[in-house]
Amino acid sequence: MSTFPPAFFARNKDDRARLLASNGFSRRVPWTKNLIAMEHCTFPYIKYLESSDTLHEALNHLHRYGILFLSSTPSEASAIERIANRIGPLRNTFYGSTWDVRSIPSAKNIAYTAQNLGFHMDLLYMASPPGLQILHTMIASTRGGESLFSDGLNACYAMWKKAPEHLASLCTYQVTYRYKNDSHWYQQDRTTLSHPIEFDASGCEIPDLTRSDQEINWSPPFQGPFERDIGTKDSSQNGKTEAGLSALRVYLKAAKIFKAFLEAEDSVLETKMEEGTCVIFDNRRILHARKAFDSDSERWLRGAYVDKDPFKSRLRVLNEQLGIPKEEG
User: β-strands 67-71, 42-44: how paired?
Assistant: First the structure.
């Protein structure tokens, strides 16, 4: 006969308790721009670097809401490495371990132009896209160039409430992402949502304890031709079967609704990232975009990636040492 202390049952009484006991995390919360006001998600750079309490608060905020900002970051190229290393090692890609975002004449990648850049996530054409992205504003003397952020989890919540019949297609239809440029060719097929998703009455995501976190895949600027689930070539109509074309139409309708929720005015946090501002966000949840800017002026951001595993490890250790912050609501 096995004997269990009362604390065991307290830790496992429901999904929320089991999530805290097994992972050491609180639940993720969808947000609109009114909930995620800048003053509530900005932390001083020096405290982030030097205070375990501030780092603990900041990383829990990053887990729950997917985004945070650092203020008064020094204009030093190495500052972004110090910021990243508080979480975990830098993720190296073909851009390097850190990289610069500046407009370049005749650039082949839209990110290095002064043009409007629509909502997207980075490196979805790789087998393992980075979990966190860090952007540090070094120079911001441009007219325009405002940064835009939208919570993909909130778009899922809006669909779950208002158009649940379209969620299935986002979980099953494969979209191709491709980067073919400058002697590189990366390509992956992904569903828009990694698996079905549900929310509780308070609007919090109900975690599926049998799976990893919901991962959202949305990056139209880096999308390639559809390669899967558009039918076989055993029928007419340009080599695609009616069943395949029907699945494509269903997906495109669902994607149009998802895009509308992502880009709704109350969903978008818009900010002009001034010099000394740094943003850290979940690249598998938060969409980012940029408005066009005057190419005659200068805009320079330093960038880096950190994988999700080091982030979760750091957060678990901090929560074990300092406690898991109490959830609101």
Answer: parallel
The mean pLDDT value of the chain amounts to 86
Task: Note the Cα 43 to chain centre separation in Å.
Answer: 19
Q: Distance between CA 173 and CA 226 in Å, rounded?
A: 10
Contact 324, 24 (CB under 8 A): yes
Q: Confidence class of residue 26 from pLDDT cuts 50, 70 and 90? A: confident
Q: How far apart are CA 95 and CA 282, in angstroms?
A: 19
Q: Which token pair is 278? A: 């740094």
Q: How far is CA 72 from the centre of its chain?
A: 24
Q: What SS3 string covers the chain? A: CCCCCHHHHHHCCCHHHHHHHHHCCCCCCCCCCCCCCHHHCEEEHHHHHHCHHHHHHHHHHHHHHCEEEEECCCCCCCHHHHHHHCCCCECCECCECEEEECCCCCCCCHHHCCCCEEEECCCCCCCCCCCEEEEEEEEECCCECCEEEEEHHHHHHHHHHHCHHHHHHHHHCEEEEEEEECCEEEEEEEECECCCCCECCCCCECCCCCCCCCCECCCHHHECCCCCCCCCCCCCCCCCCHHHHHHHHHHHHHHHHHHHHHHCHHHEEEECCCCCCEEEEECCCEEEEECCECCCCCEEEEEEEECHHHHHHHHHHHHHHHCCCCCCC
pLDDT tens string 285-326: 999 999 987 777 788 999 999 999 999 999 999 999 998 877
What would the pLDDT profile of 227-273 be if each residue is shown by its tens digit? 755 543 444 455 555 566 788 899 999 999 999 999 999 999 999 99
Question: Residues 110, 111, 113, CA angle at the centre, nearest 5°?
Answer: 65
Phi and psi at 52, nearest 5°, equal -65, -35
Q: How far apart are CA 31 and CA 130, in angstroms?
A: 22
